[in-house]
Amino acid sequence: MQIPFFNLKRQHNSIKKELDSAIASVLNEGQFVGGDQVAQFESEFARYCQKEYCVGVANGTDAIELSLRALGIGEGDEVIVPALTWIADADAVSSVGAKIVFADVLETEYTLDPEDVRDKITDKTKAVIAVHLYGHVCRLDELNEVLKDTNLALIEDCAQAHGATYKGQKVGLSGTVSTYSFYPSKNLGALGDAGAVLTNNSALARKIRLLANHGQPVHNEHLLRGRNSRLDTLQAAVLSIKLMHLNQWVARRKQIATLYVDGLAEYFEFNVNLDEDAFHLFVIQSDKRDQLKKHLEKKGIRTAIHYPKSLPETEPYKSAILPTAKKLAATVLSFPIYPEMTDQEVNYVISAIKAFYTGH
Ligand SMILES: *Cc1c(COP(=O)(O)O)cnc(C)c1O
Asked: Whole-model pTM?
């Protein structure tokens, strides 16, 4: 059996009629930037996330960068970033000219260690980026406790957490802003690059919208120095269709995660929350990670590593090593998980992993 790491063809086949008609309507109307479909998706996604305002942007990295800019963060400021995450978080901070200060992550939760965040705060710190890595929700109460009585902004990077909840409500509610990516493989993915920023602060939403469109409230009137980072009409129309399926897709991810947890409890320690996590990825830790990866490949099963280096170990962001992030980078492995996987396929992966450990 061949099990790819993810497979969008199945998803798109399952909703082909809806996608075709959404795409046809954009072609018929002939507007490809801005327009009703963008405004409609923004309001639907805001409602889904239980936030007041949603600003569609070109991708998830821009969502973070524009948030930092709108918050007035730049040269001379410091931003705390987890040492284990996708490099986009560091790139966004460096592109506004602020200094990145890495904080370590928690060994079994993969997310920011609130105590290390506390230790890293200085007079220059302006924001903390909390990443719900793999769809696993950060310790938000503890982070809020650390940030209480400070003026620091909390940016919740929800790029891997569409549909995750914290205490029964959607993630992103603690953040001054929460940012999303709709890169094709995310839990909610466009047919190309796309992203969004959500906030309850109307002035901040307005500023982000201006920054993303050359500082223009209306065409040819420029209020500030901006750039171009807009959400395409076609992507918005596709995202509106897919959003209607998101809850069902996240529910299926949880079912698959449950199969993995139940089937593999002997071999790995899991610290997952089957009610609240969004399972963008299903990640285990193993000292024999590379051998296990190779073994599964021989059986036709593709796995991936998120991420093979902690950010302080990367060339552009070389800095003091943070031990937990470094250790995780050497041991984590992501198994295939996507809503269209069948139980039979998940069970095939589970038996291939068992075979690795039992030697059969
Ligand atoms: C995907 C991702 C981003 C960036 O999103 P793009 O749309 O690819 O720019 C940021 N942070 C995390 C944690 C991500 O997984």
From this structure: 0.98
